Amino acid sequence: MREPLSRQTSIPLCRDELIRMRAKAIRRGVWFRTLTKSERAQLDLTIKVVQKVRSFLLRRVLTPLVKKLQEAMETMVTRMIRVVGSSLAQKLSQIAQNWGNTFATMWAKDHGLIQYLTITHINRPAMFRL
After folding, report:
1. Quick check: pTM over 0.90?
2. Which pick of 24, 69, 122, 129 has the fewest CB atoms within 10 Å?
3. Is pLDDT above 80 for 64?
């Protein structure tokens, strides 16, 4: 079974992970579009100077920047899984629990079900859309 969605999006705060994230952001064209010049400078300086971020203050400064980059690099399907799929799975789980299904509590956290509901939602026919 896969990890819950909340654990999959971790904030990388070591040099290697920041370098990978910067390269990926540059390739996708979000590095310059998403971050300001000072934010890019903060990340670049951290990459040059620090091997692993241990300072609480530096972590507090870098975390919003890394989250901003992660959200900008997120694909449409991943965003839909996070926003639409998890809410659909929670609703479905709640309905099944109300009908007496005791195993339905796990449905809200099942990544496979969330992904299935998201793809079904994306591909539903136009006549069923609100």
Report:
1. no
2. 129
3. yes
Q: How many domains does one find in the chain? A: 2
The helix, strand and coil proportions of the chain, stated in percent and rounded to the nearest 5, come to 75, 0, 20
Are 122 and 80 spatial neighbours (Cβ–Cβ below 8 Å)? Answer: yes
Residue range(s) defining the domain that contains residue 47: 5-74
Whether residue 86 is found in the same domain as residue 47: no
Q: At what angle do helices 15-28 and 37-49 cross, to 10 degrees?
A: 140
Identify whether the C-beta of residue 79 lies closer than 8 Å to the C-beta of residue 91. no
Please give the pLDDT value at position 130. Answer: 66
Cα separation of 33 and 56, whole Å? Answer: 27
Contact at 8 Å (CB) between 119 and 94? no
Please name the residue that has the structure tokens 């789980």: 93
**3 pLDDT more than 60:** no
Check residue 83 and give its pLDDT.
86
